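To whoever picks this up:

The parser on our side crashed when reading a file containing two proteins. I've narrowed it down to the boundary between the first structure block and the second sequence. Both blocks are reproduced below exactly, byte for byte. First block:
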Amino acid sequence: ENKLKNIENEIDRIIEEFREDGIKEKERIIENAKIEAEKIKQKAAREIEQEVMKVKDQIRKEYAERIFNIVEDLIKKKLTTKDHERVVTEYIEKVVHIN
């Protein structure tokens, strides 16, 4: 009877040890999952920020190009032949003067 009690105690001890090991493993898995989730979240945030910067840069380029085209059209409409000749002459004089 004493031997049977010792065996039951040993079984209980082994079961408790497995239960504790299972709890520790569960906690380790959960902690690793939290760490990985944070890494994924940070990576996604960086990628989103990079995409936002790309879009902003593209918008700036498109905006600048549109402004340039509008100004160019306005100048073409307003610039007479005489004005054009004067601008070219002034430019040539500046270039000659610099050299």
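<<boundary where parser fails>>
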Amino acid sequence: MLEYPDRCAGAGLSPAELRTTKADARCRETALQFPADSLLQARRILIVDDTWDSGKTIMAVKKRVVVAGGLPTTAVLHYKPGVSLFSDSPDYFVETTGAWIVYPWETSGEAE
């Protein structure tokens, strides 16, 4: 079950109401749900994200997979080495850039 962070619960909305509001998308961005360790152990796991900016999100997921005994591989569309906080880089990427990226699937609020 997906758990909402405290900041979302504090909005006074029920989970059903959250699913029908813009707040839902913002809450889900910070809520991560992982498979059980037994499903990751000794398995190759592909971690995909659209952009590697600071790298914090994908590195957190990668660490979680490693701790569970999985073998992570990372892939992103756009890698921004100039703002990355890590010496690691994605295993696969389409393009390096320093530009702000707005993808066609983002809502106007997400692009700001």
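After patching the parser it read the second block fine. The first strand starts at residue 44 and ends at 52. The CA atoms of residues 70 and 99 lie 33 Å apart.
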